[in-house]
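Data availability (excerpt). The following record was deposited with the supplementary files.
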Amino acid sequence: MERPQARAGDLSWRLSSHPITLLFFLGFRISSLLFYILGSVFTQNFILVFIVTILLLAADFYYLKNIAGRRLVGLRWWNEVNTASGDSHWVFESQDRSGSAESGAPSQNATDKRFFWLALYAQPAWWVVLAIVSVVRLLNPIWLSLIVIALILTITNTLAFSRCDKFSQASSLASTAMYSGGMAKSLAGGLFSRLFRG
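Predicted structure:
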């Protein structure tokens, strides 16, 4: 019996353009959840679970923000603060991943994209489930503080990458319309035809 052929976009790490980046990304995403669950079930040493989970969450936050997001989906974000006024604003950056001959950039791998967005949205959802379980089981309320920190870190990355993706799609659409000749050509053609038709 033959195994079905894997297609682009299937959830198989072997189809990834960056398998090591993907495996580390998934490892960091899963490890903080697993350590929290196993630590709260098998030990009552809150300090150990708190410290190790926070370190895993910080590693996940850094790796996702600075490495995995850039390599897997071509997105980066950061927050800049104006030292003179104290105002902060978010900066979004995206690579052209269309794979067009003009850009010279590689096309986006569908498997990397699916893994990235699925893991990005799944982790905050799992922390919300753990928060509900923690409240229902009336575990020591101090455990809820760890979940709140986890939610802050994971939701920050989720919101930032979602906004970055929307910014990327909007700028891609605008550049395609303006520079590929579609909108610019029709505007210029319409303008010149009206001017010279008289």
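Summary of structural features: The radius of gyration is 23 Å.
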